[in-house]
Design brief:
The complex is a heterodimer. By secondary structure, chain A is an alpha/beta fold. Helices cover 21% and strands 31% of the residues of chain A. In chain A, the strands form two sheets. In chain A, strands 5-6-4-3-7-1-8-12-11 form a nine-stranded mixed sheet, sandwiched between helices. Chain A has a two-stranded antiparallel sheet with strand order 2-10. Chain A is globular. The longest helix of chain B has 12 residues. In chain B, 41% of the residues are buried. Classes of the chains: A alpha/beta, B alpha/beta.
Chain lengths: 215, 226
């Protein structure tokens, strides 16, 4: 059965993006260092256009596992980008260029309908306007028995966490105290989420905490 | 040669969503209508208790704020180690192994009661818990004086507001966060909002069988402690 897996990098004080996100600062001010641990890895380079080389080791193993057995991706409109509101006449096509690093169908949560966009390298963006459950159902159907990855951002992650739809959560904690921005664990209500630890790994500059969400 | 400066350690129990409020009991700290008090108890076990025992053995002074002082001073003077075991057992933790880890007698509670305590408060007029001293006045100046006195580690427990002030002043030399595998969704968070980004250095990751992970960090040079 397809599961929904969330992999996300979080600062020690709980933020997944800095304040004032914009085209210049897609991860908010100060958020550009969040993924320093990932961008130099072999797996990251392979997913982002096949540039050779890159670091191997614990962090790379974790990242490789994160992409493994993923058949579809879900992301929020804010992560896809292009600002809130209607798409306009020259619609935004994502941050990632002609060959995005997903290489699967990607389901973008939005209030604004739009035709699917076929990109190079196996990525197709589908725009889902009827809610998070529908996006998960569509992603599952497209995943061909593999799992679905929830790409982010904070708001999409909160909605899926709050709805109890996430099966597996891996938080990559980086040693940064950001002081502001978008929190991962926010707007979840007061009922709490119980987690079952799967494993803890330490790589250079980042700790990987992996949990199953208890139903 | 300058005299060695005592290390100031902030040690905390936090949920995965960063809440530090009332880990040990429902009545511990109900500010803001907090309903999850005692959330840490079910995850305690031998490794966690051993870790805290070792930490306490290496502690030379405790530094706390007013709220944590009132919680501690209301509990520790009459506590024995068996009470700690019972508290954890009642909260769903593994208390049988704790009794073994705690060892004979009353070492943990005795140490809590006998250690020097420094209490930072603008409102308290006096402190009565054994060996407690009230700190008023400029925080950076007073803590700076304390750090230059001879002695070992000064350890901050709980005391979220104080911890934030110490962080903002760049006075913290080490962070030890015991991260518990639960998301509470409400409660006071250890890290508040701040104007500037701080980069730390991950020193150690220690996972326990119950799902608790101890993360240890030090400030980096540019954000280093004074």
């Amino acid at each position: 059965m397809s599961e929904l897996r969330l992999q996300i990098t979080m600062t020690l004080d709980g933020y997944v993006a800095g304040p004032n996100q914009s085209v210049e600062h897609p991860l908010g001010e100060g958020g550009e260092h969040l993924h320093d641990w990932a961008v130099k890895l072999k797996t990251f380079r392979e997913m982002h256009g096949g540039e050779a080389g890159g670091e191997t080791g614990t962090n790379d193993d974790v990242l490789r596992e994160a992409f493994d057995n993923i058949g579809a991706v879900i992301m929020g409109r804010n992560m896809f980008g292009g600002g809130p509101g209607p798409w306009g006449t020259e619609p935004w096509s994502g941050w990632w260029g002609d060959n995005p690093p997903f290489h699967t169908p990607v389901f973008v949560l939005t209030h604004h309908a739009r035709e699917p966009m076929v990109m190079e390298g196996g990525t197709t963006f589908h725009f889902v306007t009827d809610g998070i459950e529908s996006a998960f159902e569509q992603a599952k159907a497209a995943a061909g028995g593999k799992d679905v990855s929830l790409g982010g951002g904070a708001s999409a992650a909160q909605q899926y966490l709050g709805a109890g739809l996430i099966h597996e959560l891996e938080v990559h904690i980086v040693p940064i105290i950001l002081g502001g921005g978008a929190r991962l664990f926010d707007n979840l209500g007061d009922s709490g989420i119980n987690l079952e630890p799967i494993r803890t790994l330490e790589g250079p500059g980042v700790t990987h905490l992996k949990y199953r969400v208890k139903k | 040669m300058a005299a060695p400066v005592r290390k100031l350690v902030v040690t905390e129990f936090v949920s995965l969503d960063g809440v530090y409020q009332a880990p040990g009991g429902p009545e511990e700290d109900t500010r803001g209508g907090f309903k999850h008090g005692g959330w840490s108890l079910q995850f305690w076990g031998e490794e966690a208790m051993q870790y805290k025992s070792n930490e306490l053995s290496a502690t030379d002074a405790i530094l706390i704020g007013r709220v944590t002082y009132e919680i501690f001073a209301g509990a520790w003077p009459t506590m024995v180690d068996d009470d700690v075991v019972k508290l954890i057992k009642d909260g769903g933790g593994d208390a049988d192994s704790l009794a073994a880890a705690a060892g004979d007698g009353n070492a943990f509670a005795d140490k809590m009661n006998s250690l020097p305590k420094y209490v930072v408060s603008r409102t308290l007029k006096k402190v009565e818990w054994s060996n407690s001293t009230l700190i008023k006045g400029d925080l950076a100046e007073e803590i700076g004086k304390l750090k230059r006195q001879p002695g070992g580690d000064i350890v901050v427990h709980g005391s979220g507001d104080l911890a934030q002030s110490l962080m903002a002043e760049g006075l913290v030399d080490e962070y030890r966060l015991m991260v518990f595998p639960t998301v509470l969704g409400s409660g006071f968070r250890l890290f508040g909002t701040a104007d500037e980004t701080k980069h730390l250095r991950l020193v150690d990751t220690k996972p326990f069988k119950t799902g608790v992970v101890v993360l240890t960090y030090e400030p980096t040079r540019e954000g280093g402690a004074k």
